[in-house]
Amino acid sequence: MLRILKWLGILAVLLVVAGAVVIFTAGDTATLPQEAGYGAKPNLPPPHPTFIPTINQAGTAPWTNGAMPKPADGLKVQAFARGLDHPRWLLVLPNGDVLLAETNSPPKPDDAKGFRGFVAGVIMGAAGAKTDSPNKIVLLRDTDGDGVADKRFDFLTGLNSPFGMTLVGATLYVANTDAVVKVPYHEGDTHISATPQKVVDLPGGTINHHWTKNVIASPDGSKLYVSVGSNSNVGENGMAVEEGRAAIWEIDLASGAHRVFAFGIRNPVGLDFLPGTNVLWTAVNERDEIGSDLVPDYMTSVKDGGFYGWPYSYYGQHVDTRIQPQRPDLVAKAIVPDYALGAHTASLGLTFSDKARLGAAYAHGIFIGQHGSWNRNPRAGYRVIFVPFTGSKPSEGPSGMPREVLTGFLNGDGKAQGRPVGVTIAKDGALLVADDVGNTVWRVSAK
Fold first, then answer.
1. According to the model, what pLDDT value does residue 125 have?
2. Residue 299: which residues within 8 A CB-CB, separation 6 or more?
3. For residue 54, what are the contacts with CB-CB under 8 A and spacing of at least 6?
4. Conformational region of residue 208, where left means phi above 0, alpha means psi within -120 to 50, and beta covers everything else
5. Alpha-carbon distance 139 to 99, whole Å?
6. For the whole prediction, is pTM greater than 0.90?
7. What angle do CA 288, 436, 32 make, to 5 degrees?
8. 20 to 30 Å CA-CA from 250: which of 66, 119, 220, 353?
9. How far is CA 15 from CA 56, 264, 288, 416, in A?
């Protein structure tokens, strides 16, 4: 009976029309301002689960008539490349060429079953994320230095929902959804014809709930670090299918050995090293369905062997009672993240700003691409922000609050003209932003 009521309830409150906003009339509304979920000590009110989860996904209305997002004062924005096919992640090569993963979710039939799968399908459809994956990497080249890519090449095809990329010497590594693969690369190449060679298998399968896998090389090029998201929201598919997931892996390139470097990280996506150090940072999507104010996404330095709470707790020892049986032994050692990025902002992209040339205000800190919420009322994210650092940590107090860098992704009707994903620094110091709804790579530079 409860299952029937839930289905009737969800059908009664969802209105899905092609290109329209998903309208929701139940669930909950945030009681705190969005800013309360930011910083080293976010406000964490009691959980507020509802019988029907809050669904407030923005529909899509991609950019028209030359419209663009709005940059912060002192910055300007232009389209580095338009007319792309679901661009998600970026890598700048030493010669300034830009690799872009055009990609989307692989088939995952067991993630679409039941009530939860139905809801996820509605959300993804409204967000424009149910198209077939292009499964390729394109190369973008600006030959005249005007900030616009005037050359475009199909660089590497035949991949399996590729996402992260990293270059070590003359070898390019790509994180497919189910494996890290490698191909040879020589500076100036515009197409790779070599068949990708497998480095290591990654957790995939027919659920593959968080399918994106990112990869980054250590500063000395001896190791790879790979982000692997969880196979569920909060362990509802059983912990057996979470083996090796909700984790960051370390791969030793000399021996091929791999291990879990850190775990209990629900969905780590963006990865970067604090400049001049071996300290890895990541952007993490936290859990849903316990209220519009919970749980903040976060960015954090990652400790070798560290446990970050998922699914048993969040922000240290805040226990999530939905997962049974509990693991108080793990909860007791759960590490508190360094900096909260707001509840349900879907903070994906992360890159340190030290190589950027955007002015003193952005000299040392992290740029974050916030893809935007579905489980929060009112909506949050849908922007690019900058978090300033003092030394090796985010700045404290009011000066440490995030600064908006790129906004205007939602139009006046609340529809998403674009949604930022990957962020990186171009060779000339501009900030590049992959927009998977607007099918554009934006270039942000100083005026």
1. 57
2. 270, 281, 282, 283, 284, 337, 338, 339, 341, 347, 350, 366, 368, 387
3. 24, 26, 27, 28, 29, 291, 292, 375, 376, 377
4. left
5. 5
6. yes
7. 35
8. 353
9. 11, 35, 21, 17
- pLDDT (tens digit per residue) in 176-209: 999 999 999 999 999 999 999 999 999 999 999 9
CA 233 – CA 266 distance, rounded (Å): 8
Q: Find the mean pLDDT for residues 401-429.
A: 98
Domain boundaries, the chain: 2-446
pLDDT tens column, 70-80: 999 999 999 99
The pLDDT tens digits for 204-235 are 999 999 999 999 999 999 999 999 999 999 99
Task: Give the tens place of pLDDT for each residue, 288-328.
Answer: 999 999 999 999 999 999 999 999 999 999 999 999 999 99
Torsion on CA atoms 45, 372, 248, 232, rounded to nearest 10: 70
- d(C-alpha 432, C-alpha 92), whole Å: 9
Q: Is 82 exposed, middle or buried (0-12, 13-18, 19+ CB in 10 A)?
A: middle
pLDDT of residue 6: 46
Query: What top-level class would CATH report for the domain 2-446?
Result: mainly beta
Contact between 231 and 242 under an 8 Å Cβ cutoff? The reply is yes
Whether the bond into 378 is cis, omega within 30 of 0? yes
| Residues 6 or more apart whose Cβ sits within 8 Å of residue 138 | 84, 99, 100, 102, 152, 153, 154, 155
The answer to which of 34-48, 86-100, 121-135 has the lowest mean pLDDT is 121-135
Residue 11: CB atoms within 10 A of its CB come to 10
Band of pLDDT at residue 119, cut at 50, 70 and 90: low
Contacts with 364 (C-beta within 8 Å, 6 or more apart), sequence order: 352, 353, 354, 388, 389, 390
Q: Any residues with CB less than 8 A from the CB of 252 and at least 6 apart, and which?
A: 222, 223, 258
